[in-house]
Amino acid sequence: PSPATAAAAPATPLIIGHRGAAGLAPENTLEAVDRADRAGVDWVEVDVQRSKDGVLVLMHDQDLVRTTDARTVFPGRAPWKVGDFTYAELSRLRAGASPAWKGTGYASARIPTLGQLLDRLDRNGQGLLLEVKWPGNFPGVTQDILRTLDRKGWLDTHHIDKRLYVISFQAAALKDVHRRRPAVRLGICDETPTTGELASYARFVDVVNPDQRGLTRTYVDRAHALKGTHGRPLKLWPWTVNTAAPARTLAAWGVDGITTDVPGTIGRAVGRG
Ligand code: G3P
Ligand code: CA
Fold first, then answer.
1. What pTM did the predictor assign?
2. Which residues of 234-265 are buried (b: 16+ CB within 10 A; e: fewer)?
3. Cα(7) to centroid(ligand 1), Å
4. Structural domains in the chain?
């Protein structure tokens, strides 16, 4: 094709370390964030919940069983829901207690607070996709998150423009953040939203985080034809892509970011690092 008709090659997608870098160290720990940093990864995604006494902590599941030794440390506390434990109790748990990390040196990793995470990201120079996890379990959690971000300086122009996205599967939580802090960029997690749903999300988000399995080139083009709430083409950052071939396909289709447990591997597969 002549230069006038040749399609521009898509930009290399942003690589986002999923739960820090869940394939390299226990998920949602500072150790995982540091592993992503050492792999040259500028952005990490983490899941945020709240302890019984109001401390924001990193944890994916609604209960502590899969990723910690809560059953052993607190045998009488079934069903081990995150919000039933004080921060002092959570800080006694090992966040690398699942068999996968046995003997790796990461087994004694702890559950970090959101504040500790933000300090670590500032030190490393990394950006954050902060997922508001299970907000229905934690009334008022979006206000708590905004308060912590503000206290740590993460709502200044630099962080808002360059380092931060707030994401969630729950549109209501994102709309609440949008209403309180319209400058904060948002991303909605959903499996494979229809074109109509994409258009309705674009009223309050800049990014859609879909399941990689539902994507096609046409789907990516349709999303990019929409504008996100801050006026730029709607971005697509699919999850969770852990092998090279699908990562290369998604990159060729022009997705804007790839969320992965193994950020070094996927970064190399798509030509980053
Ligand atoms: O970035 C989106 C991704 O984190 C959603 O999946 O279940 O790992 O929180 P999940
Ligand atoms: Ca997540």
1. 0.95
2. bbbbbbbbbeeebbeebbebbbbbbbbbbbbb
3. 32
4. 14-61+112-269 (3.20.20.190)
